[in-house]
Task: structure prediction
Amino acid sequence: MNPVPAPREAAPDEALLIQRLLARDEQALRLLYARYANNLLAVVLRLVRDEALAQDVLQEAWLKVWLSFASYDAERGRLFTWLARVCSNHAVDMLRSPRYRFHSQTRSLEGADAAWVAAPVSFQPEHIGVRDLTRQLKPRQREVIDLLYFGGCTQAEAAEELGIPLATVKTRARAAIRVLAGLARAGPVPLLREGST
Result:
């Protein structure tokens, strides 16, 4: 029967670094980062497969390392192993997050074949019938849309102008956009001119 190997002792400089980190020495955290960041980035990069995203994950994981360093137990494994586990766990959590799934399905316009073309100076929303569609909105929704889209106001400015809470402006705008989308899908609708019955 083979004897169970004793846990590997940390190198003297690493043991000192661990003690300094447990004492919340920020300079020790900088040294730890300088020593292991490149290797940890490689660990994260294998999981997320995107350099910029891997950098973000590493920075967020580094904060977790700092905040949870007291949970590191040298008896259970080497410092690098613990760091790699924290970083890879954070990467997996991030990959499973709804925020990541949303952003991973969204393509950048810069990478797409789409070309940005400025609207002609003469462009007016009336050209595509948006103004006519807004006449079919409820008055409260229409006043919000008029300020936001035709008046060039921000939502906060519209709230101030109308004397209503910002959340109410957002709710009315969202409802109006839903109605306008339905109207646009339905196609042109003959409008009654003001004053006619």
The two ends are 99 Å apart (CA to CA).
